[in-house]
Amino acid sequence: MADAATPATIPSALNLSDLNTTVNHEPRVSHVRLAQVLGVADARAILRLIERNRAELERYGSISVTVTENTDAIGRGRPGKTYWLNEPQALLVCIRSDAPQAPAVRQSLIQVYMDWRRGQLAPAATDMDGRPLALTEPEIMAALAFRRAVQKQADAEIARLRRDVGTALSSALDRAIIGEFQRREGLV
Question: End-to-end distance of the chain based on CA atoms, in angstroms?
Fold first, then answer.
């Protein structure tokens, strides 16, 4: 068995700032950050590990997911997903991982969560009404759907206004031309 490094010797060791307390009102670490500290080059490998072990992971609570819209300037690709794992879920992912750094990362996770329980982490960020800023995946998907619907309505309203303004401008121009013609011909 390889010697387990201390948290201080883990490349980019976990620390309190890696815990997100706005997701489901409990400290969670992202699968992306776990992949980094485990030394896994492709975070999708951790996603696959999570999916293969989903039933066991969900024994320790729901797996929270945040979805981000595609940032590609021309709208290509899929929205990104970040899985947020609570303490037992993150430890289980490290146990299931065959990464050489896994024992040291487990030790680091335990230390970070112990520090959090000792109150060494700031409280979760909230909005003005005291609600947490993070949303669950269904809430995010509903918000995105609502945003798309509002955008579609706004686009339709803009198109209607352009038509109306175009018609009004055309009518005003017609009236101006007719008025100018009538004035030149002495009809007015």
Answer: 103
Both tokens of 69, joined, read: 């819209």
Q: Name the DSSP letter for residue 29.
A: E
Burial profile 56-79: b = 16 or more Cβ within 10 angstroms, e = fewer: ebeeeeebbbbbeeeeeeeeeeee
Q: Tens of pLDDT along 133-161?
A: 555 566 666 777 777 888 888 888 888 88
Q: Are 67 and 80 spatial neighbours (Cβ–Cβ below 8 Å)?
A: yes
Residue 115 makes CB contacts below 8 A (sequence gap 6+) with 16, 121
- Token pair listed for 104: 């040291």
**What contacts 13, CB < 8 A, 6 or more positions away?**
7, 37, 108
Tokens 């989903």 -> residue: 54
Question: Tokens representing 176?
Answer: 């101006």
Strand partners, 66: 82
